[in-house]
Amino acid sequence: MTKGNSTKITDELYQYVLAHNPPLDAVQRGLVATTYEKFPDVAGMQSAEEQGPLLAFLVRLTGARHIVEVGTFTGFSSLSMAQALPPDGRLIACDVSEEWTAYGREAWEAAGVADRVELRIGPALDTLRAMPTDEHVDLAYVDADKEGQIAYWEELVPRLRPGGLIVTDNTLYHGAVLDEAATGSAAGVRAFNDHVAADPRMDSVLLAISDGLTLSRKR
Ligand SMILES: C[S@@+](CC[C@H](N)C(=O)[O-])C[C@H]1O[C@@H](n2cnc3c(N)ncnc32)[C@H](O)[C@@H]1O
Q1: Ligand 1 binding pocket includes 28 (Cβ within 6 Å)
Q2: In sequence order, what are the beta bridge partners of 70?
Q3: How would you class 139 by CB atoms within 10 Å of its CB: exposed for 0-12, middle for 13-18, buried for 19 or more?
Q4: For ligand 1, is residue 97 a contact (CB within 6 Å)?
Q5: The domain spanning residue 181 has which CATH number?
Q6: Which of 65, 67, 129, 219 has the most CB atoms within 10 Å of its CB?
């Protein structure tokens, strides 16, 4: 088994990647800076900078009008996706933290997309279970507690339209997925990756982008 012709991403090469992606706009840049200033200990939870343009690209590629996000934090990923939605599109943002998501509300307002985002505070599993069960979700982005991922998946797949996409972050979990004795979040990601790879309802690819990103399309 070989690695193909994969490239080691040095810091310099990472900057090159960012320089050849669509740049973040002023609201996105401001939100990233504010997050690192206000919450330095947990700011690393924010989706990686290159994921903003990638998520926007996927929203446009799928023509998504109805998005569900599990794990909003200070709102970078939801902002990036909401900006790519058509004006009548909707994004349901799920999180448990009023404090962190307040910064998201400010950013959505500043970007003029607040009317596209509906924030639902509470355990995401409760929020998902309360959603209608017909196929009305075009795209879901999952980036919350890793132990809950299989449960989120099982709620999202039936609600996804055929051709709809689930994007799951951190599926390499800093390499800890290789540890057969992993516990906690790493064990959750390992179990999730096996679950997804064996699910006949979906076509999935695990990409070595950022901390691992799995794209799953409903058949
Ligand atoms: C990795 S951060 C999300 C980062 C976000 N996507 C961004 O771009 O900034 C994970 C978020 O999941 C939330 N979270 C954790 N457990 C949750 C649960 N059971 N239900 C809803 N949200 C949860 C946390 O409050 C945190 O804001």
Answers
A1: no
A2: 94, 142
A3: buried
A4: yes
A5: 3.40.50.150
A6: 67
- Is 46 part of any domain? yes
Instruction: Give domain status of residue 115, yes or no.
Output: yes
pLDDT confidence of residue 135: 78
pLDDT band at 2 (very low <50, low <70, confident <90, very high): low
d(CA 151, CA 169): 15
Q: Alpha-carbon distance 18 to 15, whole Å?
A: 5
Q: Identify whether 2 is part of a domain.
A: no
User: What residue owns the CA closest to ligand 1's atom 22?
Assistant: 95
Q: Is 153 in the pocket of ligand 1 (CB under 6 A)?
A: no
CA distance 26 to 7: 31
CA of 132 to the centre of ligand 1 (A): 22
Q: How many domains does the chain have?
A: 1
Q: How far is the CA of 22 from the centre of ligand 1 (A)?
A: 25
Indicate whether residue 123 lines ligand 1 (CB < 6 A): yes
ipTM of the complex: 0.99
Domain containing 42 equals: 11-218
Q: Is residue 52 part of a domain?
A: yes
